[in-house]
Amino acid sequence: MALKDFVGNEHAVRFLLRMTEKGTIPHAWLFSGPSQVGKRTLAIEWAKLLNCQSPLKTDGGLDSCDQCPSCHHLSPDRPSYAQTHPAVQVVDTTMVAYWEAVEKAKEAEAIDPTKLKPKLSLGINAIRTIRETLTHQTLWRYRVIVVDEAERLTEEASAALLKTLEEPPDRTLFILVSSNPWAIHPTIRSRCQPLRFRLVPTRVIFLLLKAKGLTDEEASFLAKLARGRVGWAVNALRDQTWQQVREHLNALLKMMVTMSWWDVSRFAEIATKGLEEFESEGEASMASQRRQLEETLEGLMLGWRDILALALGAEDLVVNSDWLPMLKQAAKSPNWALKVLWELRQTYRRIRPPFNANPQLAFELLAIQAMQGALQ
Ligand SMILES: [Zn+2]
Fold it and tell me: Which protein residues have their CB within 5 A of the ion that is ligand 1?
């Protein structure tokens, strides 16, 4: 792909193109905004344009040729460890796990990067590795370091990165990517040129899905489920696991709607199912666990948002339209839906740092609160 294929957040593309054409590019950037709206993709596409050997002049402005050897080395579809551009480095929790595995591996041992478990944080070693690469001369026009999920930088790593940002090497850009920018060290934030991304309109995602061959009905359903996250919609085309996730959510929602005391523990067990296998595997597993729980809670919030819409008589706003009969059963009063939504939000907060509540207990509490809401 090239910049012309980037969907949504046109203001961000225009801004980067203006900077590129002017030739005065700040050396540190913070791409922030909701997850899966294309922040990392655009960072890589921009790095591609900056190093492209024969950039094109199109109606929309400059664009990479997507053909030259430099362009060939970069693809936003590839994971961080499979990017092969000598001057562009994507650092994320998987890359850190990869570096760690390389360090540990004996020469003869092969590493299977697809089996790596992402780390919970970006530690000091990641920044040391970057700083080490910066000491080498480069013949490329720009060296670009993309730090994905920059809010995961540890205190120590932040301090080291700050030092690098304060003595910027020549022709080197740092692009920090984050959906939770307030968790980034404030001094680092203040050193960066901010670029904010927004959710992509459902209509734009719908048209993209149509262009990829989906029928009106399929495209409309998926575009609504994507809730502005264009990356989610594109992934859903490639990988069908979202359907299993929805089945899981459907079962949980059904239980919540008809919850009784007997179901409380069972509900929590199903909600946290699959987590046991992560146990005692340390830090990496905690990250995967938390992501899985967050996704479950987000899905449940969307379900209860639909129930609230129905309770208020706004059926048009329902996203999970294939679940209508079950959702209608729960749409007894807006107050109940609001109460459950509030409790879902609280559960979300409890399972995250600094609280790190036991997931089983957190979900049991959620079930009890949901049930009490129904009785009121
Ligand atoms: Zn090129």
Answer: 52, 64-65, 68, 71
